[in-house]
Amino acid sequence: MAELIICEKPKSALRIANALADNKVVKETYSKVVPYYRLKHKGKEIVVGAAVGHLFGLAESAKNGWNYPVFDIIWKPIFEIQKEARFSKKYYDCLNKLCKGVKDVTVACDYDIEGEVIGFNIVRFVCNKKDACRMKFSTLTKPDLIEAYEHKAKHLDWGQANAGETRHFLDFYYGVNLSRALTTAIKTAGSFKIMSTGRVQGPALKLIV
Asked: 38-52, 114-128, 183-197: which has the minimum mean pLDDT?
């Protein structure tokens, strides 16, 4: 059984595939758009696939008008909640296909909080796994990538994964609830204007003012 390496971006997938390959890398394409790569590293079959940043976003569990406060939220494929992200469905479908033919999964997204959330969501929602191995690297040079693969962690970085997911939850709670409260207040006063604020946007505006 092959191993699947999940990358954050297509360019990263190509760099990692070329770095780990014993010989020639075989490029294949899903739906004539999404590239992925097959190779052998020390004789082991590996397939390298990619996301295009976040494939999942937060949304209300059940749509109940334009009310607030909203705290019942879930992760959904981002192409289901953002029209401009519909292109990401093919990357989602490609990884879904690749997961079915592998035994081991390794996350090779950027080693930071956002990269951990991207990889974590793919592992649990696309691959239907609770955990995965983790490559940790700071550059995409061949020596660093080989080192990261040879000494990969046996588990995801749960500190970064939990911190990243918490940040996304807080951004949603602050942004959606406070923006709806402000907009409703304007409407109650006899006018209408979409108001926007958030965990970062509000304090940043205050500092500028």
From this structure: 183-197
Phi-psi region of 75 (alpha: psi -120 to 50; beta: other; left: phi over 0): beta
The DSSP-derived string for 63-95 is --SS-S----EEEEEHHHH-GGGGGGHHHHHHH
Give 94-104 pLDDT, tens digit per residue. 999 999 989 99
Q: What is the DSSP string of 134-149?
A: E---SS--HHHHHHHH
DSSP secondary structure code for residue 194 in this structure: -
Strands 102-108 and 133-134: parallel
Closest C-alpha to 93, from 32, 180, 154? 32
Instruction: Strand 26-30: give its sheet, edge to edge.
Output: 26-30, 34-41, 44-50, 2-7, 102-108, 133-134
Task: Count other Cβ atoms within 10 Å, centred on residue 175.
Answer: 18
For residues 133-160, give the mean pLDDT: 97
**pTM of the full predicted structure?**
0.93
